[in-house]
Design goal:
Number of strands: 20
Mean pLDDT: 85
Number of helices: 3
Helix content: 10-25%
């Protein structure tokens, strides 16, 4: 295969991955708490050729360091962008929004019979009955929301009103006049790029062999909870900038078309060479 076709096909493959990332961002522009991803490119393997020499007899175009021939471009990394999204007022009692970009709610997720703690910025919560006397705070998908002891938040079923304090304490007022306090489990992300995206605006820890969980996420306890800043009756919107994503998508499509034409031209030139007669 000619070097032109090799460069173009390698680059087209990586551009398609970038277009997939952009499409995923655009499709989640209205998803509560969604964090977009941004990709960067780097040059692939470069071959150095120094076998062309310039002397008084040969008129050969050369550079002082020879000729560097690349193998195309590839995605260097896809970075999670934790920039704070816009807070939207909903006036709903169980809508909670985080006003600090590196903090997450903790939820309990059961998959394939295994239970794990995962993290989300989506604060749309509900009270789901678990028996005749108690209700549990859950996400829209039904995952239990955890407290500061990493246990599901369970309240009596006769809850009349729920008030949220900025540091993450829920005050549940019951119909009999009593009040119960529960601390929401909160986590601070230390290394966001190590988190694994999961369905439902969730993030999971990487496998233990990849990274120590304590180096990726820390649970906010004690006096550190004073740094938590929660808003009740509000939701954090997606941080996707639709105009920027559409512009980036147009640029990637143009680059893809350019490389596709390069493959076409290379194929035509090889066809011309094969058609030459001695």
């Amino acid at each position: 295969m000619s070097r032109i076709m090799l460069n173009a096909t390698n680059t087209m493959n990586q551009l398609q991955k970038q277009l997939d990332t952009i499409g995923h961002n655009i499709s989640n522009v209205e998803t509560v708490g969604y964090k977009n991803r941004q990709s960067t490119f780097q040059e692939l393997l470069v071959q150095q050729n120094n076998n062309q020499t310039l002397n008084q007899y040969d008129n050969i175009r050369n550079t002082p360091t020879g000729i560097r021939m690349s193998s195309g471009a590839g995605l260097a990394q896809t970075k999670l962008n934790l920039t704070q999204g816009t807070l939207k007022n909903t006036d709903r009692m169980l809508d909670f929004a985080l006003a600090k970009e590196d903090q997450f709610f903790t939820v309990q997720v059961t998959e394939n019979g295994e239970t794990s703690t995962q993290f989300t910025r989506n604060g749309v919560f509900y009270l789901s009955p678990i028996n005749n006397t108690e209700v549990m705070l859950v996400t829209a998908e039904g995952h239990p929301v955890l407290d500061s002891n990493e246990q599901p938040v369970v309240l009596p079923e006769n809850v009349k009103e729920v008030k949220l304090q900025p540091e993450g304490v829920i005050l549940a007022e019951l119909t009999n006049g009593q009040a119960i306090a529960r601390e929401l489990g909160m986590a601070q992300v230390i290394r966001p790029q190590m988190l694994r995206a999961r369905p439902g605006s969730l993030f999971a820890l990487p496998p233990a062999e990849v990274a120590n969980p304590q180096d990726v996420v820390g649970f906010i306890q004690g006096v550190a909870r004073e740094d938590i800043n929660l808003k009740q009756g509000m939701l954090e919107q997606s941080n996707v900038d639709l105009a920027s994503e559409m512009t980036e998508m147009t640029l990637m499509q143009r680059s893809y078309q350019f490389n596709a034409r390069s493959v076409q031209f290379a194929d035509q030139m090889m066809g011309l060479v094969n058609g030459l007669k001695s």
